[in-house]
Write a structure and sequence with these properties.
This protein is an alpha+beta fold. The chain folds into 2 domains: about 1-185, no CATH class; about 200-470, Anthranilate synthase. The chain has 11 helices and 24 strands.
Length: about 475
């Protein structure tokens, strides 16, 4: 990425913008390839989800990711550059796409600010290939035409503009200038009083017997086919009116501030949203972080009951075994990249609003030759959402679950031109389309699992999405 020492605020006029775009067009004409012009400015404090909701259009792709308790959020909409990929090498294709896009970028403004510069937004399905009729491909990746992000007290707005050799510079100038002025004083319009709105009612259906599948999986574990397999349920809901995915997401982020809230829309009316407790991988300033989250129990109704339940989880041989399978796999796969892994000796607890999980944070220094997507490729899917051994468990999932996962348990996140980025695991999630929603929840099955207990665990996990959908 080529960064020019030009500050848009110091040259804030349409004429200056057009002159700059003309120079970029000359570069595109000189070597015969499109340039991506990225203009970053710091603006007054904005809520990226409020911005996205204010301009939401079902026919426009968008991406949103937030960690409320960390004070970070990023949103992007419309498409400047787009790619899709599938197959066992889908992350290699993604890496090539990102490298090419950043190599063609000319960036100006507050590029070094938090979330400055262009970002690639990514949604990777659970599997390398998706089935016919699924609404998201195996990998969706795009740089948006605009993005706005918050990190603590800093809000950064970015316009990303493809400039071709024959682009109409007057139209490009008008579009970018309009966006520049808008983010300088963004208006959210009128508010709607929701206090009298009635809870949404749904018709509910489920297409397969989860308990029966768990029993079958336990039998196959006993036969030595695999040690762990994660099985999910999918509940289909139909409302009398269309659902607004971003309004549902706002409810999720308020209820679960310690989770990673996310939304991705395909531009054809479908959105995949959720509030995931699990970071898959994060890279910042050459340091990799990953979460190992496996083993679950409910929260208590009092402090003493909650502590007792947490202690029970930390001493559960079944849950500790499940957790160790995931941790061992993550360590082995990162070690195969040549990374030196550090982590606490014993798992702690991650307490959410309705559940608590066994949790081990993993950390490693990245050498220059290894990047975020290299780690993502070896980690996804982890045994926390697939199983162990990985191939035998994943090969069995589709037949036991009875529905295609799509983006459920997939990898959703962003990356920048500096090598940084963050991906979360697409669990505690729902696929929304018009008045319908498919809501997902899963549980890890190991020796010692019981069908009724695993069913009850999924019921607890469903609560997050169901409560948000109904209000």
């Amino acid at each position: 990425m080529k960064v020019l020492p030009l500050q848009p605020q110091d040259h804030a006029s349409p004429d200056a913008l057009r002159e700059f775009l003309a120079q970029c067009q000359m570069a595109a004409n000189r070597d015969g390839r499109e340039r991506l012009v990225s203009i970053s400015i710091t603006v007054d404090a904005l809520d990226p989800l409020a911005v996205l909701e204010a301009i939401y259009e079902p026919g426009h792709p968008h991406f949103y990711a937030e960690h409320p308790s960390a004070g970070t959020a990023i949103a992007g909409a419309e498409v400047a550059v787009w790619a899709e990929a599938a197959g066992a090498d889908r992350f290699v294709k993604l890496k090539d796409f990102a490298a090419d896009a950043f190599d063609r970028t000319i960036a100006v403004g507050s590029v070094d600010a938090a979330f400055g510069g262009p970002h690639v937004f990514v949604a990777a399905a659970f599997s390398d290939e998706v089935e016919e009729g699924e609404v998201f491909p195996a990998v969706t990746a795009f740089i948006p035409r605009w993005q706005v992000a918050r990190a603590g007290d800093v809000t950064t707005a970015v316009a990303n503009v493809p400039v071709t050799a024959d682009a109409d510079l007057d139209k490009l100038t008008e579009r970018v200038w309009r966006a520049h002025r808008k983010f300088g004083g963004f208006s959210f319009g009128t508010t709607t009083d929701r206090s009298t709105r009635q809870p949404t009612e749904f018709r509910v259906s489920e297409k397969y017997d989860f308990r029966q599948s768990v029993a079958a999986a336990i039998s196959r574990i006993g036969a030595g086919e695999f040690e762990k397999i994660v099985l999910a349920r999918a509940i289909d809901l139909e409302a009398d009116t269309n659902l607004h995915p971003l309004e549902v997401l706002n409810g999720l982020r308020q209820r679960y501030p310690d989770c990673f809230s996310f939304s991705i829309a395909n531009g054809r009316g479908e959105s995949f949203i959720g509030a995931s407790p699990e970071r898959l991988v994060r890279v910042s300033q050459g340091v990799l972080e990953a979460d190992v989250l496996a083993g679950t129990i409910r929260r208590g109704s009092s402090a003493s009951e909650d502590a007792a339940l947490g202690s029970e989880l930390q001493h559960s041989s079944k849950d500790l075994h499940e957790h160790d399978l995931v941790l061992s796999s993550v360590k082995r796969r990162l070690s195969d990249l040549g990374l030196s892994i550090t982590h606490p000796a014993k798992p702690g607890l991650r307490k959410l609003a309705n559940l608590q999980h066994l949790f081990t944070p993993v950390r490693a220094e990245l050498p220059p030759a290894i990047g975020l997507l290299d780690a993502l490729a070896v980690l996804h899917p982890t045994p926390a959402v697939g199983g162990s051994p990985r191939k035998s468990a994943i090969d069995a999932i589709r037949g036991l679950e009875g529905f295609p996962r799509g983006l459920y348990a997939g990898a959703l996140g962003w990356m920048n031109a500096r090598g940084g980025g963050e991906f979360t695991v697409g669990i505690r999630s729902a696929l929304i389309s018009g008045a319908t929603a498919r809501v997902y929840a899963g549980a890890g099955i190991v020796a010692g699992s019981a069908p009724d207990q695993e069913f009850d665990e999924t019921q607890l996990k469903f609560r997050a999405l169901l409560d948000a959908l109904k209000t």
